[in-house]
Design a protein that fits this description.
heterodimer, A: mainly alpha, MetI-like fold, 69% helix, B: mainly alpha
Amino acid sequence: MSRREGLTPYLFLLPAMLLILVWRYIPIIAGLRESFYSNAFSFTGAKEFVGWDNYRYLFDDPTYWESVRVTLKFNAIVNVLQVALSLGLALLINQKVRGIGFFRTLLLLPIAISINVAALAWGLALDPTYGLVNGILERLHLPTQPFLLSADQALWVLIGIVSWIGVPYWALFFLAGLQNIPQEIHEAARIDGANPWQGFFHITFPLLSRTTTFVLVATTVANFTMFAPPYLLTNGGPSGATNLIMFDAWKRGFTYGDLGASAASITVFLGVLIIVVAAEFLVFRPQHD
Amino acid sequence: MHQSSEPARFKLSQIWVYLALILLAIIVILPLEWIFASSFTNRETVFKNVLPFTLKALWPTEPTLSAYRAIFDEGFGRAIVNTLGVAITTVIGCLVVGTTAGFAFARFDFRFKGLLWTLVLLSLMVPYEATVIPAYTMINNLGWTNTWQALIVPALANGTVIFLFRQFFAEIPQDFLDAARLDGATWPRVMTTIVLPLSLPVIVTSSVLVFLSQWNAFFWPMLVAPDPNFRMVQVAVSIIGVRQQLTYWDMLFAASTIAAVVPLLLVLPLQKYYISSIMGSGVKG
């Protein structure tokens, strides 16, 4: 099929490979390097090699550990929740009922909306004083809630907001997986007397294991790197309750001018993310190939 | 999609299906509809039907464009034009880079092909947020802060588009290409006269994907182009949102409506393409 064409393939590839090397790979290396140097924004303006100083400084900072704790808690909940709900949504919009096409279009709408518009929209709707949700709660004679102003509720509100976009988005992958399962398999199970729940747990779910692993890993990456909601809505608060690690790293670099600690934080973060993703692959290794 | 004729399937009872569908539809629609309706309401009356809630909050009784006038007075129109220009340029650039690279990976045999393809695939797995800060430092060192190239050039390094084109080009029958080559056509000519006209579906898919990623871009433009002359839509929305919250909610409603409506208008008619691009970039990868 393919031909030897001298330089032609390299010329065709040059722009793409150059762009990917410069803008996708060099920043990783540059970030790694930055984490071992003093800050560019210091008084002298010179950068000097400082070894592990940035890491030591970071690890001595209780704010950092609090941010790590919040990020792990957020992810422990949101990733499992999004996998389960997106599978549920895919099963639901895969039902053959009248009008399902309309509902499918409607329920997938949030995937076109940016995370920051979604965050702002829900931020307004959940405003304790003027928001739509408290307006409805009041009308129903239910107690109104502080939502993002409460250290106990804020992280849960963020989980809800990111899932409003995330669940329909990931449901698409499950929907594709479901539509790849041959109809005959369901028929056979039904004829053998399997009820719907048995059918789901013994047939559908195992056949979706590749998709499930993919979605779990992809949600993990997406949610570990979540930035916009704390930036737009909470500034990491109240009392650090929503200080997710990407936002914390951004604040270190741009609000406090500490690029070294920021780069160190992101380097550690990337290392941890690789370990988490590898662990997910190992534990949930697809059984069917 | 995929309407099959058999009704058989592991079915929940239909009433529960409809109850779940309607409940979820309310969760999806309610905030969007509220923001849409409120964006056409006067600043003074914007909360009248929210506290306590009446259904009038979801439909403006005396529609007005005052909020839209206010945001356009503050330069929102500029942000829309900027974003359209950046997004369209990025789409064209990504198509050029993606078709050439995709074609090379699909149809040519050359040294280091495996290694280069692995680099493209691995680049898809690096979370872009994690490279944003060093990439920003690079932009600074290049003196590209507040320039169009800062917004466009890094976005051209799009592995997903290369991947989509490679998958599509691998399916084109070899005879088509051979015939043209025998007639003495150069490879760039084969690309433009034979390959590209066949590739309309994947061109549409990639264009929607790239356009939306630029329209919805927020973190990167906020860092590299904070100047109002280079302001992008999502940054403009967030500035109205962060600075003017509680005072000018109507403006925030109007800006959010525009930021949300453009992708919806694009995605609704092209939903099939957009969905297949998302699924194509994940499941087959």
